[in-house]
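Recap for those who missed Tuesday's class. We walked through two folding examples back to back. For each one, the amino acid string is listed first and its predicted structure tokens come directly after. Nothing is annotated here on purpose, so try labeling regions yourself before you check the end of the notes.
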Amino acid sequence: MIDFLFGQRKTPAELLRQHQHALNRAVRDLDRERTKMEGQEKKLIADIKKSAKQGQMSACKIMAKDLVRTRRYIQKFYQMRTQLQAVGLRIQTMRSNQAMADAMKGVTKAMRGMNKSVNLPEISRIMMDFERESEVMNMKEEMMNDAIDDAVEEEDDEEETEAIVNQVLDEIGISLNQQLVDAPTGKIGTKTSEPAEAILVDDDAALQERLNNLRRD
């Protein structure tokens, strides 16, 4: 009912904007009046010079008084304009503060809504579920990797590898045992049919030959 009779109630921001427009309009009116007074000042100066040339000193004095009053009014217009600009600056500052307060109010409302929507127990449950599912996924991944390794790796590889190693060792053992059997059994200080250094060379050669045969096989 009150809004219907007196109009809709304006917000503080709207009131500040209205006062700012009024101050700007007042400043423009003062500038317009000051411009008129400055034009009148120039006219009075010209009339004073004209009367002085004609020797009308009484008229010059009267117009000189009007010139002094006109210049005082012009100075007052400048002072009033400065004061209005200062008030306008304060209003602009208040509008900026009001806008900042409105923005902070909106942000606060949004933050309050976000805080209400955040469900900490639900988030904790989600994180626990995520951790559990991650562990299950890691276990399945390890099982799949083991299954793939078992499928790719042949069962005979390890047995074949052990057979080759045993064969090499057997060949080396047989060679060494054979060379030890064929070696001379003379006593220390007696002469043998071949020098000891030649026997060692033959042993190395025989061992190398068997290793070469093994690689070819």
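Example two. Treat it independently of the first, because the proteins are unrelated.
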Amino acid sequence: SCLKAGDDVMVVPGDDEDQKRALISETDASQSPNSYANHLWFCKICYFFEKNVNGKKVKMFHGQWFIHGSKTILQETAHSKSLFLLNTCEDNPAASIFKKCNITMMGAGDVEQPDDGQPHANDFHCALAYDEKEASFTDLPSEEEMTKLLEHDTCIACALRKRGEQLDELVMTSDGYSRHG
């Protein structure tokens, strides 16, 4: 089937620039009953584009990353189908896409299905975002916030980063200066 913007995919990882994360992901405690989680990375395709590399056009995609629960502080206690939204994105070669998967975004009141430990399950769920620096979980942006964020951008991570930069700007007001709104 043809892939399009908005599809969730599993990709063959390149070298992980985060050496600590790369080491931790290889430990026994970071292995999941889901074999895809042990060997692939997960992302949502934001858009496709072509890049000129050594005179050749290479099909690329911009993707919003998810992390499997077994690669977080939860390690072996994580549900085998749980993914967490990361506030990171990246341009990747389309050739790195292994296959399409299904990620159900869960609301605050939704209950995850019992873990059946299927090794080749292709259906995942995401109920929280994960901050790798702080090793903390937070609520996903609300539907309303997502819509607002995506008004001017096709990538949540890019939109959040731009919003953070705008909040960090020093703004002159009629009676002084303001930062963070």
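Answers for example two:
The first strand starts at residue 8 and ends at 11.
The beta strands are 8-11, 41-53, 56-68, 82-93, 97-105, 123-131, 136-139, 171-173, 176-178.
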